[in-house]
Amino acid sequence: MSEALHIVCPHCQTTNRVPAAKLQMHPDCGKCGKPLFTGEPVELSADAFQRQIERSDIPVLVDFWAPWCGPCRMMAPAYAQAAQRLEPGVRVAKLNTEEAQAIAARYNIRSIPTLALFRGGQEVARQAGAMDVNGITAWARSNGA
For residues 112 and 3, what is the distance between their CA atoms, to the nearest angstrom? Predict the structure, then answer.
């Protein structure tokens, strides 16, 4: 039997146990029935952010951004493409720093866009500035995603 991973649903925030061998099989949430991976970045609230980074057994890549930020908007399509490439081995998410100012302050986010990679609830890597899809995926993979 393969090892089960904890995967937090991006829709209802329920923690699911998914056998590692079945990650590629498009698993659904046991509670809400929606897909655990959509191939798109997950928009996180402050509560969902904590739950995703603390309870997920897979790495969580977070784009700290704001709606008024030109480089953030410019990078958004590339980040969406990166989600298609990185999932299901990585949860790809976005956190609006205007709506979650306390989290941005706690993680000392000084410029946006900033990508941060979390594993086991801890930040393991950070990169500020807009990147293209190849840069995002290469950076994430080079840091263990």
Answer: 37
Residue 69 falls in the annotated catalytic set: yes
Q: Which of 9, 12, 29, 72 is catalytic?
A: 72
Is residue 12 part of the annotated active site? The answer reads: no
Q: What is the pTM of this model?
A: 0.96
Is position 5 within any domain? no
7: in domain: no
Domain that holds residue 70: 38-142
Q: Kindly state whether residue 25 falls inside one of the protein's structural domains.
A: no
Q: What is the pLDDT of residues 24-54, one digit of tens each?
A: 999 999 999 999 999 999 999 999 999 999 9
DSSP 44-102: E-HHHHHHHHHH-SS-EEEEEE-TT-HHHHHHHHHHHHHHHHHTTTSEEEEEETTT-HH
